[in-house]
Amino acid sequence: MRKKLINQLKTNWITLLFIMVELLLWFFILFIDSPFELHVIPFVSITLCLVYVLLNYKNNIDYKIMLIAFVFTLSADYFLTLTSTQTTLGTFLFFLSQLMFMLRLHFNKNKLSINSLIPYAVIFMMLSMIIFFALNTFDLLLLVSVLYYSFLLINTFYAWLKKDKYIMFAIALTLYVFADTMVGIKASDPYITFNPQSLLYFLSHISFNIIWFFYLPSQVLFALSVKFNHVNKGEQHV
Prior knowledge:
Blueprint: H1 2-31, H2 40-55, H3 61-82, H4 87-106, E1 107-108, E2 111-112, H5 118-135, H6 140-161, H7 163-188, H8 199-204, H9 210-228
Antiparallel strand pairs: 1-2
């Protein structure tokens, strides 16, 4: 009993320290001109999320799925955040992390229902056709981006349907949607002229890093959901 209490206190201190450090890094990313290279602190913040997950090992499928998802996320951020190279590869790695999130939501008793994949395919095809007819063009990066965003939207929808088990995960995915929506708004700025009085113009010209305002909290909540997600006794163990 004493050993169990000590272990609980230890893990609680690790969690508290993790949150405090991430809050400090988040503040630096948003408001402080860092003496380090521009993208080092953001990459470190995501690396710490993976480290936190590794420190909270659990012998179940849910943990292993999320661990793989974080490896994909960190790899994607290496290409898109730290080095700003290989945009298509980085986006594809983000898609793979969403694929892991899909497995987390639908993997039940070591089985994955094929029917659960149908909404993902439908949304992907609908978004693809809308973009193709709107832009009259298509390339690999656009295809991967649509695939990734489709999975993100559906994962968010399903997470809220299962909020009794995945409330922290659902909030994290919602913040993720906000972050990637801001990526899209900022990326469209050179091609679309927003009305200076519009909300889109305000968001695309906001003074702080609004993408990371949503993105880092989402990753921290993903990491915390690994520790605090409820897995029924006897289920999802390997």
